[in-house]
Design a protein that fits this description.
Elements: E1 3-14, E2 21-32, E3 36-40, H1 47-54, E4 62-71, E5 74-75, H2 81-85, E6 92-95, H3 109-121, H4 125-138, H5 144-149, H6 157-169, E7 175-179, H7 187-204, E8 207-211, H8 215-221, E9 224-229, E10 232-238, H9 239-244, H10 249-256, H11 295-299, E11 305-308, E12 311-313, H12 318-321
Parallel strand pairs: 3-8, 3-9, 6-7, 7-8
Antiparallel strand pairs: 1-2, 1-4, 4-5, 9-10, 10-12, 11-12
Length: 328
């Protein structure tokens, strides 16, 4: 399938008194039409900033300083703000981490949804309500009439997240970015939300970027996985290859740190922390924490290179990693 979204050399910096923080520093990524791409990595690796950069929602002191973001061939970084509004909502939708934080606390759900439909579809009040009800049914909310009359604080976490998904889909976008859509939800509701996203991808021919810390979720629904570390993609491959034949020490470390109901040994924590992105280490950014680091890693920046046609790794010793980790 052709790429719907292609990111080339993206640099997003945040200015500060000690110099710019290079949160994204030459990010390269592609998402094929109809694909679910999982974007994983520790907090601070740049996942959410990637999503906000694609949506052109970076605000000062942050700024995009270089690169290209191609959506179906159009470079979003070359559009004016007015031009970008034609893409947000209509061609690209986003689900944020905290649904209640993005719902107006003094407006009923029906008012918020009607405003979105009237803005993006140009419909009248009656049709906006009908479309709102239809969308709430599509995302699996029972008693949608009651949900339309509710305020955000009257919704459970799972209901609020479904409302956010309905809002993100109101403009019939081709790309849906889901930023930690299961945060703060219990395990049962998490599974429901993930199944819903998978069903919507199939039914609406959506392309989905799923940002998550939950590697089990990635294994269940994602076609491809991009592992991010310190503002860069360090491994990119089909999901089954990432779990069965990891080719970057950071990916291996993440997999070893996963909790498991069948594993008796203690979790293997990754030593250290993500580096200072004002002054990242020379060579490989993961080398201060890496169990395979050698002299070359501290002196030479590794390229993101092909090991197979569909498996890329940013490691000098990728062929030697050889870790096999089954999905628990």
């Amino acid at each position: 399938m052709p790429d719907l979204l292609r990111i080339e050399g993206l640099k997003t910096y945040f200015e500060g008194p000690g110099g710019p923080v290079r949160v994204l520093d030459g990010l390269d990524l592609a998402v094929a039409q109809g694909q679910i791409l999982g974007l994983v990595g520790e907090s601070g690796s740049g996942k959410s900033v990637t999503a906000l950069s694609v949506m052109r929602l970076i605000r000062p002191p942050g700024r995009i300083v270089g690169g290209r973001i191609l959506f179906d061939g159009t470079d979003l970084l070359q559009l004016s703000e007015v031009g970008m509004r034609a893409f947000r909502g209509r061609r690209m939708g986003m689900i944020f981490q905290d649904p209640r934080g993005y719902l107006n606390p003094v407006m009923r759900v029906g008012m918020v949804m009607a405003e979105v439909f009237r803005t993006h579809a140009g419909v009248g009040r009656r049709e906006a309500k009908e479309r709102s009800l239809e969308m709430l049914r599509r995302v699996g909310l029972p008693a949608p009439e009651r949900v339309l009359r509710a305020y955000p604080h009257e919704l459970s976490g799972g209901m609020a997240q479904r409302v956010m998904i309905a809002l993100a889909l109101a403009g019939e976008p081709r790309l849906l970015i889901a930023d930690e859509p299961t945060t703060a939800l219990d395990v049962t509701v998490q599974a429901q939300i993930i199944r819903l996203l998978a069903d919507l991808r199939r039914d609406l021919d959506l392309t989905v970027i799923l940002i998550t810390h939950n590697l089990s979720v990635v294994a269940e629904v994602c076609d491809e996985v991009a592992v991010m570390y310190a503002g860069q993609v360090v491994e990119l491959a089909p999901a089954y290859q990432v779990f069965e034949r990891s080719r970057h020490p950071y990916t291996v470390s993440l997999l070893r740190a996963r909790p498991s109901a069948v594993r008796s040994r203690d979790l293997a924590a990754i030593p250290g922390h993500i580096p200072n992105l004002r002054r990242p280490p020379l060579g490989c950014r993961f080398q201060p924490r890496c169990f395979m680091a050698g002299p070359r890693c501290a002196a030479e920046v590794p390229a993101l290179r092909h090991l197979e046609a569909d498996h890329l790794s940013r490691c000098h010793y990728a062929e030697e990693v050889g870790e096999r980790s089954g999905v628990a």
